[in-house]
Design brief:
Elements (H helix, E strand, L loop, with lengths): L7 H13 L4 H12 L5 E8 L2 E8 L8 E3 L3 H9 L3 E3 L17 E9 L2 E10 L7 H15 L13
Antiparallel strand pairs: 1-2, 1-6, 2-3, 4-5, 5-6
Helix pairs in contact: 1-2, 1-4
The structure holds methionine sulfoxide.
Methionine sulfoxide (SME) binds next to helix 3 and strand 6.
Length: about 160
């Protein structure tokens, strides 16, 4: 289930999306990740607003009730507080985990850093244990760095464009 190697073609495609359609890029990148990688079951971006993470674009089988998460709470809040990627191989074994979907078994959260701080994060849920490995981390950190290039020109908010 994990990515075996960084998908550089996908990194280039995402770079193109960001260069060509910057305003729609966050939503298009979410859609691209969800469509291209079958183990990315639910893909979302949270943006930092004050002391909270607020859900932006997402794609997956179901909506989450966690549309606003205080920084420091849950796996998402931990990644935003530390600025470091979190990989949770078994969500049932992690006390920080905030449950969204009954089908989720593992999760990866990758901070988006710009201007010396965390401005958002990519959150992906997987339906199998251990769905995310080092190549997913390296790949998604490259995607996060590309998304960070939109800042501050493109408003990073949960509001519809
Ligand atoms: N599981 C996350 C909450 C967000 S949902 O997965 C979409 C967490 O523990 O922070």
């Amino acid at each position: 289930m994990v990515l075996q190697a960084v998908d550089y073609d996908a990194v280039c495609e995402i770079g193109k999306i960001i260069a060509e359609t910057p305003r729609e890029a966050p939503a298009r990148v979410v859609e691209y990740l969800s469509d291209r990688f079958s183990h990315y079951d639910w893909v979302g971006i949270y943006w930092v607003e004050g002391r909270d993470l607020v859900l932006g674009p997402w794609k997956g089988p179901e909506a989450t009730e966690h549309t606003r998460i205080p920084i420091g709470t849950g796996v998402c809040g931990a990644a935003a507080a530390s600025g470091r990627t979190e990989i949770v191989p078994d969500v049932r074994a992690d006390a920080r985990y905030l449950a969204c979907f009954a089908s989720t078994r593992s999760e990866i959260v990758v901070p988006i850093r710009a201007g010396g701080r965390v401005i958002g994060e990519i959150d992906i849920d997987g339906r199998t244990l251990d769905a995310f490995g080092p190549a997913d981390q390296e790949f998604l950190e490259a995607v996060a760095a590309l998304l960070a290039m939109l800042w501050p020109a493109v408003p990073m908010t949960s509001a519809p464009a």
